[in-house]
Amino acid sequence: MTEPRIELVDVFTKTPGRGNRAAVVLDAGGLTTGQMQAIATAAPATETAFEIAPTQRAEHDLEVRYFSKTCELPLCGHATIGFHYVRARRLGLDSQQLRVKTGAGLLPITIERRQDDHRIVMTQGTPRVVGELTLTQRRLLLEALGLGEEHLVAGLPLQGVTTGHAKVLVPINSHAALAGLRPDREQLIALSKELRIGGFFVFTLDRQVPDVLYHGRMFAPATGVDEDPVTGNANGPAGFYLASQGLFPTPREGEARYEALQGEAMGRPGRIQVLLTLADGKVERVRITGDAVLLDG
């Protein structure tokens, strides 16, 4: 078998070395699950996306499988943007809609051709709350993060929210506290196993940059990612959470959007755009988009 070509792409940035890096393998249908995992483990990126061609009668245009360095994931936001960006650039695709099979279900992807570049819009799964932390779980999480109750935004729940790959959302009141986080890796892994949720997204509305809604940090050591620079499957749920809690002004009908900033503490800042579609005051659809750059041009 021919050695697979691994492409690298930095997502949610146009500056190489910033944002979140993904590895991409196009035409990976000949690889076994074990081979995909071995490639992802060795790749210089937190996650790797593999293209699987559809069967003749499939109801999707293609399939994408995602692997971290330790396990297969149902979905990965930045690797989705990165995968479709690489594929669009390599194939010279025009603007189009795709139906993509993932471990989280069938998801629509929009490819927008913009002169000599492309932009990818990912529609995530139906947003929903999967649970609220108990008082004991809340205490354990704060201990693992090195935070106290005084750091939390008063009156807001700590909830697990999913748009395909659930995260616990932790709103705190200080950018300084966010920047100073040094979480206990083993405690977070143990809590992830108890909650059956892969990661913890800590964010603050204490903005240090005027044109973003919040700053965030994402910790997922249970899936092999101690900290993720910019996380599509955390910022999407965060948009749903903020709108549901009345922390972000939204119309009863129509669309609302904002930008968020993540990765500053890792020296890999990136900006992600979150787009919410509402009906009768409720978020019905979450999409994410952002820039990307191929590392070899």
How is this structure best described in words?
By secondary structure, the protein is of the alpha+beta class. It folds into 2 domains: 7-123, Diaminopimelate Epimerase, Chain A, domain 1 (Roll); 128-293, Diaminopimelate Epimerase, Chain A, domain 1 (Roll). Helix content is 22%, strand content 38%. It contains 6 helices and 18 strands. It has helices at residues 33-42, 77-91, 135-145, 175-179, 185-195, 232-244; strands at residues 7-11, 20-25, 47-52, 62-68, 72-73, 96-102, 105-114, 117-123, 128-132, 159-162, 167-172, 199-204, 215-220, 225-228, 254-262, 270-279, 282-290, 292-294. The chain has an 18-stranded mixed β-sheet that branches. A hairpin with a 7-residue loop joins strand 15 and strand 16 (270-279). Helix 3 (135-145) runs antiparallel to helix 5 (185-195). The radius of gyration is 18 Å and the shape is globular. The relative contact order is 0.16.
